[in-house]
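Quick one: structure tokens for this chain, please?
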Amino acid sequence: MIESTGVSSVSKKKAVLSLILNSLTASITAFIVVLLFFIDDPILDNGWESFLFFTTDANILTAVASVIVAVFDVRILRGKATVIPKFAELLKYIGVVSLMLTFATVALFLIPVYGVSYELGGTNFHMHLAAPMMSLFSFLLCEKRFKISLKESLLGLLPTAVYATVYYVMVVAIGAENGGWIDFYTFNQGGRWFSVLVAVMLATFGICTLVRLPAVPKKRMLKVNG
């Protein structure tokens, strides 16, 4: 009996689809981030202000992860590798969790405040909808090979935790009147920042759990009759 417990290899078809989706995600995100410095936006005074938003930061993080995954897709297609390394998969996982939180925030909080035409129009269509969906699709169907443990899944909380800390300091502790940020996410309306923080972190953990669950099974035991 020969046993094989290794992670299943990535098929050429999935590698091609992953390469296409990751290349589109990274290239369109890069184009939009540069474009924001040259277009008039009803909310942004200049392109640098776009980096204040979790949406921009999450898309850039995912774009970087997409480039790394795309490099390994090319290696797989050239026969130089059989799987995407776990560090690349985990980085993409963190990006996907962040983008899905962005998608949920837009759907539940921002569309009621700013409207569908702004939140899903123009460049926001990619940042708020297309990129999250392409990244989720490519990750779950093309790239996810390793089992993500509960401990590893907590890495998906890091971008949200870091951003929430900065947002609290700039919006609540300092305040716009003292040189901080305005509450553009409206999370502190009525002084309810703490309850919103708890809800956002719980939602992020829920997304971490859901994204890690659908896993590509490991190779089954192979039997060879001698």
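The chain has eight helices and no strands.
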